[in-house]
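Give me structure tokens for this 405-residue protein.
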Amino acid sequence: MKTFAATVRDTAGATRVLRRSAVSRESLAGDLRREKFLVLEIKEVQESRSSLPPLWHPSWLKIVTSFDIETALRALSSMLKSGVALLQGLSTLAEQSSSPRERAMWMRISDRVLAGGSFAEALSAEPRKFSAVVVRLSEVGERSGELALTLSRAADQLEARRNLRTAVINALMYPFVVLLSAIGVSTYLVLAVIPKIAAFLEDGGGSLPGITRSLVDISEWVSANGLYIPVWAGAAAAVYFAVRMHKSGRDIEDAAVLHIPVTGRILRLSGTALFARSMQIMTESGVTLLEALATGAGILSNARFKRRVLSAHDDVLSGASLASALEKAPEFTPMLRHMAAVGEASGALHETFGETARLHEMLLSVAVKRLGMLIEPVVIVVTGLIVGFVYIAFFTAIFAMAGVS
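Here you go.
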């Protein structure tokens, strides 16, 4: 018996893909015709699970990233535009996957489609890999026959989200590395070098300079309590995550971070840009406003933003305009609701959402650069003070050893 994927049309006119086992294509075609199906195409399914390495293989450690999903969606969109069938496209994605995890994921999705499920349903069964926006766009694309277009827009949404996250991380990376290096050098001098010099001076009957004595005291304290520091840090982390697990604690934190100077504004711009871009892509693809609001709330990580969007969804469902509903969402920038009012009046909501997203992405880029410019000199000054203090103590001890006053 061989396994086949049969594309058929039922009596209601709907096109379906069926996975059946049969001796040959001809016998399967006869069986399907007797079931009142119009046979459009029959392809043999080549089982490729043997291409997966054993579970103990280290290649399974490579995770599937958001960039992998974004790249795969663009590739699938290109294949569909070129006339490649969906199942063939999924098979190609599995074959060209760089990791066993990704290959297995596309195999599972292909199996669900072969079993008669829709592509959107197959994606929704992988919630950790595909966001609600991607699933919703896939569903709309299947309904409208524009799956290639909506997959391309889904990839655009993932790219926009990745760019926002990368911009913030890149701005903070350099100051963080500089500060970490300074702490590492200072820790080595305090724990390894200064104590040896102190012991040598004390053995020779010399006294330590005051600044060196203070560093030695710090070194002795760290040596005596070093085992407790990870315990304290672990306890603090456990308390933090315990608070985050409760809705009230998460709400308090998400509200508090929005009021932090500089970074609070960056979070507002980021949340507004991400929401506007997602709404633009969904409404442009044919998703209704109510569906877009319900789906858009799911991609926002901040609980305050999420609650405001869900509240706006309920208000719109009750008959209110989107602009008036967003007036109750001060976490978003005022421009969002003003542009929403313009879009509702002109009937081009997706265009105004797109303009709003572009402006806020530009403002976010500027704000992140300014944050980096603000943090960099502060980090340099703090690093200079730390390293300078340690080096002064170090050389003071050296001079004391040499008998230089």
